[in-house]
Structure formats: structure tokens, C-alpha cells
């Protein structure tokens, strides 16, 4: 019989940043259209349904339902925001890489 691995340790080890990367400036990743929608509508959903900050799962469910009910035309607004954010991410990533190379 093979010994069981402690899964919690495996996950933590996989997510640790290496020491050489610690303290390095990082570029914030681009958001997907859904996350743009969620970011813009989270407070509205909390107020509309009377959620407290502790009810993150319920808030996420309502946001998911609202996202699914949006028409394709309404989703295009968030797709455009996401595309703009992706351009920002690529630009900032190139700038950071250029600064690191010149250092």
C-alpha cells in the first residue's frame, strides 16, 4: 500500500513564489469580461438582495445568474472593457520587462 501524500502541503508548495521573485514588482493580470461585470455590479447586488459582506458565495451566485441573463449585446460592453484591460496588461508587462533588462 502506498503512503498518502498530504495534499495541503503539495498545494501550498506549488503556489509559493520563489525567493528570487519575492519583492519584484508585478503587473496586475487582465480581467475577463465576467470579472469586469462582477467588479462593476458586486455592490449593486449586495444592496439589491440585502447581502452582508460575509455572504460571498451567495453574492457570487447572484452575479453568475445576472451574467447568464445578459444579452450578447450587453456582454459586448464587458468584452470591450476586458480587451482594453488586456492591452494595458501587455503594455505594462513589456515596460516591466524593459526595465528589468536595463537594470
Automatic annotation (TrEMBL):
Residues 27-97 form the HMG box domain. One of its GO terms (cellular component) is nucleus. Residues 1-24 have a biased composition (Basic and acidic residues). GO terms for molecular function: DNA binding. Keywords: DNA-binding, Nucleus. The keyword Coiled coil does not apply. It comes from the Eukaryota. It holds the Pfam family HMG_box. The keyword rRNA processing does not apply. Residues 27-97 bind DNA. Residues 1-26 are annotated as: Disordered. PANTHER family: HIGH MOBILITY GROUP PROTEIN DSP1. This is HMG box domain-containing protein. It comes from Perkinsus olseni.
Amino acid at each position: 500500500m502506498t503512503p498518502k501524500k498530504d495534499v495541503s502541503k503539495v498545494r501550498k508548495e506549488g503556489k509559493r513564489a520563489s525567493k528570487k521573485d519575492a519583492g519584484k514588482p508585478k503587473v496586475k493580470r487582465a480581467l475577463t469580461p465576467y470579472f469586469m461585470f462582477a467588479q462593476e455590479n458586486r455592490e449593486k447586488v449586495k444592496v439589491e438582495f440585502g447581502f452582508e459582506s460575509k455572504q460571498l458565495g451567495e453574492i457570487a451566485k447572484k452575479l453568475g445568474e445576472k451574467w447568464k441573463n445578459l444579452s450578447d449585446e450587453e456582454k459586448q460592453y464587458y468584452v470591450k472593457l476586458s480587451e482594453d484591460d488586456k492591452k494595458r496588461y501587455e503594455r505594462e508587462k513589456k515596460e516591466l520587462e524593459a526595465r528589468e533588462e536595463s537594470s
